[in-house]
Amino acid sequence: MKYCWGLFLSWLLAIPMSFAATLTAAQDPWPPFITGDPNMPGISVEVVTAAMKTQGYDVQFKVMPWARALDEVKNGRVDLLPATWYTKERTAFLRYSTPYIENELSFIKLVGNPFEYDGLASLQGKNVGIVRGYGYNSDFMTDKNFNRPESGDLVTNLKKLMSKRIDLTIEDKVVALSIMKEKGIPASQFAFTNNPLSRSPVHVTSGIANPNSQKYIDAYEKGIAAIQQNGTFDAILKKYGIK
């Protein structure tokens, strides 16, 4: 019996074993980039999943408020943020990938409001609702001529806008329209400025506190190059109507 067990063990050890390591990623709902729909989980979810899979990693996604997700990655408790804007301040605690897509941040107003963004001076005296923890550009965040009341998400800001507690809010137009549709908020009540505040490249990031963060970013860089070359990246964008 011992001889048979020894033969079986030798045979088992001879079989090539290949198990994918599992990473964690977290982000707030941010359709069409991050959603809670398993059939359409979001552009960023699918891009990161496909890229990391080519390098032998599975990715387990957690949906949570942005400020919490940022803190979890910053402190190394979660491995990746799949969709991060660049700010100089964040480079102190995040490692950034090269960008894979770009957001255009436009101001959202109520229909009938004649406001058009024409530089920061045009925001004089206004209340502009922002999302807590988002990486808006530093000039926008430090200008003292208008107010920036914070909320936890865009939906709250849209409700504030409808009740006229704020004058404007700000978001990528594609993201805002997706959120409105998902939450049953009538897009017909809102309009977008023609001129954006900024264009923000989107990156994958990992917390410097995570001892494997550079390895994960390097793996992602190899993976994104692979899926861009084999057509998977373009197929994901087309699936979500971006390309």
From TrEMBL:
Pfam families: SBP_bac_3
Keywords: Signal
SMART domains in the record: PBPb
Keyword Signal: yes
Leader sequence residues: 1-20
Domain of life: Bacteria
Matches recorded under InterPro entries: Solute-binding_3/MltF_N
Annotated Solute-binding protein family 3/N-terminal domain residues: 22-243
Recorded family membership: Belongs to the bacterial solute-binding protein 3 family.
Name of protein: Transporter substrate-binding domain-containing protein
Record organism: Vibrio tritonius
